[in-house]
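RECORD TYPE: inverse folding
INPUT: structure tokens
STRUCTURE:
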């Protein structure tokens, strides 16, 4: 991942998004979020599950960041700023030829949440008790299996011809 991120200029995009430099901590927190997403792993920080595999070193740190540190970083940015970052990352991947196919597969996921927000409770398994869950969707190229930017971002900022969504 690291060589590809360097080739795509992800570090520079993250520094620009956080408005921090090479020696600052915020771009490293953002890089950890990007890496977690790329690995499709949730709750990494809670379990510290990747801490013994050098994951924190790939983010330029000696440890994994805490949820509080991530929340502080995200609270300093608007949804529009995060969307712009996703669009820029998507442009870089598009220009690098990462999206070869025209068919998008939408993969739904329900992630258990411990949020204090009022949320609908759902069941992952029919005979299990209801729990607070986030309904999320991953979008991947059906032909290559590569994750792509969400379909609504393509409508806002199309990178090429419209995709077929299945």
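DESIGNED SEQUENCE:
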């Amino acid at each position: 991942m690291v060589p590809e991120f360097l080739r795509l200029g992800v570090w520079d995009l993250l520094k620009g998004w956080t408005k921090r430099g090479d020696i600052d901590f915020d771009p490293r927190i953002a890089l950890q979020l990007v890496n977690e997403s790329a690995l499709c792993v949730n709750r990494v920080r809670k379990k510290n599950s990747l801490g013994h595999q050098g994951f924190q070193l790939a983010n330029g740190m000696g440890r994994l960041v805490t949820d509080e540190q991530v929340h502080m970083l995200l609270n300093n940015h608007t949804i529009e700023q995060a969307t712009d970052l996703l669009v820029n990352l998507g442009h870089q991947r598009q220009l690098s030829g990462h999206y070869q196919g025209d068919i998008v597969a939408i993969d739904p996921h329900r992630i258990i949440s411990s949020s204090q927000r009022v949320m609908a409770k759902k069941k992952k398994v029919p005979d299990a008790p209801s729990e607070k869950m986030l309904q999320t969707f991953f979008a991947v190229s059906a032909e290559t299996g590569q994750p792509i930017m969400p379909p609504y971002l393509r409508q806002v900022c199309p990178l090429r011809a419209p995709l077929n969504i299945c």
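NOTES: The first helix runs from residue 2 to 8.
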